[in-house]
Design brief:
By secondary structure, this protein is an alpha+beta fold. The chain folds into two domains: 148 residues, Creatine Amidinohydrolase, Chain A, domain 1, CATH 3.40.350.10; 290 residues, Creatine Amidinohydrolase (Alpha-Beta Complex), CATH 3.90.230.10. The chain contains 17 helices and 16 strands. The strands form five sheets. Strands 4-3-2-1-5-6 form a six-stranded mixed β-sheet. A three-stranded antiparallel β-sheet has the order 7-8-11. Strands 12-15-16 form a three-stranded antiparallel β-sheet. Strand 2 and strand 3 form a beta hairpin. The two termini are 42 Å apart. The model has no long low-confidence stretch (mean pLDDT 94). The structure holds manganese (II) ion (MN). The site of manganese (II) ion (MN) has 5 residues, from loops.
Amino acid sequence: MYSKHRTRLLSLFEDEKENLLYLKGGSVLNRYDTDFEYPFRQESNFLYVTGANEPDMAAFLHCGTGEYFLVIPRRDVQYAVWMGSVHIPETYRSMYGPDRVIYNDEVSEWIGKIKPGRIHCLPGMEKEVKILGATPDTGHLQDALAYCRVIKSKGEIDYLKKAAAVANQAHLDVMQSVAPGVCEFEMKAVFEHRTVRYGLTHAPYSGIFASGPGSAILHYTENRRIMKSGELFLTDAGAEYRGYAADITRTYPVDGSFTSLQADLYDIVLSSQLTALNMIRPGNKMEDLHMAASREIVAGLHFCGLVSGNVDELIEMNIFALFFPHGLGHLLGLDTHDVGGYPKGTDRIDRPGLRFLRARRTFEPGMVLTIEPGLYFIPALLEPALADDKTAGYLNSKKLKKLFDFGGIRIEDNVIVREDGIENLTTVPKTRQEMELVMAE
Ligand SMILES: [Mn+2]
């Protein structure tokens, strides 16, 4: 799979016979000025090209010959004592398949011998390339990598499916464990018990386990509240398999059954999500889905009597963004918010809600993305809107004020764009009936 990635990347530099591509792997990070080391996570571009999950490596690809050179650190005896065995170059060759392995202290000499034209590198690497005695070019590699990473290879799809399978099961575990009087962090423990047991020890992002009002805080990570009966519970958590992420959200009642208000509001978000999922096919665009999903939300709020006026006007006035203030979804891959959301020349749309859209690319088969509409009652957004003459007339102040501690609802699935629609990787129950059944078990 990684050799295919290298071939794809090099194909974009076909007519540059003298040039090299340079990719630097990640290093171990310490916590401030201490010797505590964070768990190592490889830099995503380097991982995409090499599959090598070790610190302090680098790689060169030769645009002319297609050769792949892996640079490894020269380790001493002390390293072996503290960190574990030190491999010989031949071991790296068989592990990662480079044409040649070079020690980091031999790179300048090697560059001096092959005398490349330019070295394509990522922004920030210029100095390093100059020290090697070569001419850096930061204008192309980043876009080229994003271009490649946007469309997933078969191997990448397999890894994304593995991450999704474990995350699906972990979400089901949480759904079966949720109960009044239990602390949010116990749900985090339930989730991670599953992912870590499957060997997926690295989380792709900090999970959100939020009950009651916390569920309306978009990046709530406190996870320390005692869950109460009558509240909703929102879990936004994923798993990472060989660097590839799953990113799933479900929302359901702490005590296992929806009140009629919760049911009405939940069904608005579900119908918004289904509308967006049904619109995914090659050629369509995320921003159009975002607006269709927003329309469902505003129409639902209108039906419930929380907003009033004409639905077109509510969209026109950006009332939807008071309740759905984030983007509908994003690309998913080696990074949870994966690269390539904005192709060259595409800017963010300066409009509430849409401003935070992390992807504006036209859908193509092989893209993997999340669809995650939400409906939140956020006093920090609603209070000023209720006090503003331009918006107050559309809002049912009495009803909305009662919902200031309601929290929010979000439903998030991960899907692959196919020729004729989607393949949904997320199998966690999401209708009210299905979820109530799971929670009753
Ligand atoms: Mn997401």
